[in-house]
């Protein structure tokens, strides 16, 4: 049986993270049932984004302009840089609506076993930003994984002398989290960093 | 903040079944990171499918031709029609590779509370197929839900006199299923329809 347009659509949808073969089929059926309301607009949105979206030349955030909306926003604090692994982490911090400084997207973490070294991440660019500007604090918001911590440690050494203050995110109990379901490491960190009410 | 091309892409992706806002963001990021390998091909697959895919004029299956590949396949048994609710059910039966007859896609089930009556489903077309051909058996493969059973019952009454044999799928323990996790109805049906080994 030859591969039809439907099969090809399912194959392409199955490449999206979060969609397996089964949900790709469901998605394809739902799209075919809504060709004008969903299918063509999605195709257009994909093409437009493929044409226009690029990484910000300063921080690595994704936007449709050469310099992203965050880097050009004068209401944000340019003396504060938050270093994140991926653009998704930047989006998550923006959703929390508690941070108003600038960002720096590394593009991953150091992973020697996978062949990812300092040259594969935007670390030189970060050091250059710290050197050539008046940045007062750099927040290392990498993941609390072994690789994330190693990366933060390496970056903090590289930044030494170029910025007054280097910080990392606090560990503790997630808001809404139940103690019974937390791992020992988180509980220990929460207990260690306890503070008076 | 104005809606960017990225936001629009995420909004469109979030309309797919199985993708919530979070996974739509992940999918959008993965697409933007692979513009030429995944993003543009997906846009092309969507446009091609929107242009070419239509419902088969005989059975309602989706294909790129006026009459679908199953209805035109001479190796399949045209005297046998399997009635399914949706094209997805047809695909599931095809994947099981145990059925070689034709199909009839209803387009849903009778649901008076939602205003879906017999005229909203392809029931007249099914009766016409039974009347005007030599079909020997019609299998009512609707879901084992209340609505599905009601629909099957209604259709069997409508077909009476036009076809020699009307059948429904067997109930029983799913292959690989553990008795402990099965509902009472399934267990009762499996016990009632037991057979000698």
Strand order of the largest sheet of chain A: 4-3-5-6
The assigned CATH architecture of the largest domain in chain A is 3-Layer(aba) Sandwich
Distance between the termini of chain A: 69 Å
Give the overall silhouette of chain A: globular
Structural class of chain A: alpha/beta
Q: List the quaternary state of the chains.
A: homodimer
Order of helices and strands of chain A: HHHEEHEHEHEHEH
What is the gyration radius of chain A calculated from CA atoms? 21 Å
Largest sheet data of chain A = 4 strands, parallel
The overall pLDDT of chain A, averaged over residues, is 91
The figure for the number of domains of chain A is: 2
Largest interface: chains, residues each: A-B, 48 and 48 residues
Q: Please mark out the parts of chain A with pLDDT under 50 across 5 or more consecutive residues, or reply none.
A: none
Beta content of chain A comes to: 5-15%
Outline the fold blueprint.
2 copies of one chain form a homodimer.
Chain A: H1 5-13, H2 21-33, H3 35-52, E1 54-55, E2 62-63, H4 69-72, E3 77-84, H5 87-96, E4 101-105, H6 123-131, E5 137-140, H7 146-159, E6 165-168, H8 184-192
Parallel strand pairs in A: 3-4, 3-5, 5-6
Antiparallel strand pairs in A: 1-2
